[in-house]
Amino acid sequence: MGRPVTRALSDPGLGSAPGWPLVLYFHHVNPLVEHYTALRPDDFRRGLETVLERVGPAVDPGTVGPGFQPPDEPSVLVTFDDGYRDTLTLAAPALAEFDVRVLLFCTTGRLDRASTTNPADRAALPPRESYLTWPEARRLAAAGHVLSAHTHTHRKLTELDPATARREVDDSLRRVAEQTGRTPRTFAYPYGLVPTPHPVPPTAVGFGTVKSAPEPWSQHPHDIRRTYLPVGDTDRWPALASEWREQWFGSR
Q1: What domain range includes position 81?
Q2: Is the whole-model pTM more than 0.85?
Q3: Positive or negative torsion for Cα 235, 42, 243, 212
Q4: 175: domain CATH number?
Q5: Is 115 left (phi over 0), alpha (psi -120 to 50) or beta?
Q6: Mean pLDDT of the chain
Q7: I want to staple 54 with a disulfide (CB 3.0 to 4.6 A). Which of 128, 161, 176, 241 is the partner?
Q8: Do residues 100 and 58 touch, judged by C-beta distance below 8 A?
């Protein structure tokens, strides 16, 4: 039986509800980006190896959606936000090495813009402004990764009226469907800010960040907690991953 967890919500050491997959989120794999969810390529490989060995196997993102039935063992779902180009150039090789597929939550308006920007101008962009084109995103989908929605413009949904917030969600879900031929069954809230009422349709589940509580997906399908590997604290990762695994058992 696991020990009770009394961590603050913002602590990445607080994982998922007992019996449900640990969900990790990243923005970049890139040595030039400083962000609490951006890892250097070598650290990203180390992180994947650590969580797969100490928590459990990776969840197939294609199985995630309403009515998802969790595996009967600890597992990990890997997600990326926004749709940055380094997900293809720097993260994808490591993911292939470990045979891991991810949910990639795309800010669809930014992929639209990248798709119409000439290559020379794109090459000059810093990593935090460099997004995938839709053809590049479809290359990831062809490798088994699942493209999904993260609003159309990355606005804070909590600052919008309900109709506008719902339009941001619906437009991004529709755009992903148009580009992939697959209706998304997942959505991630920008900045982890979940408005009330939530704007995600019942045909999709919604992912937050460490601002969301570790509740069973079946009880809170539109406010699923995700956490992250603390940057610059790699020596802590093995113990942290072991804690995440222990939390899966809870009072089971």
Answers
A1: 22-249
A2: yes
A3: positive
A4: 3.20.20.370
A5: alpha
A6: 96
A7: 241
A8: yes
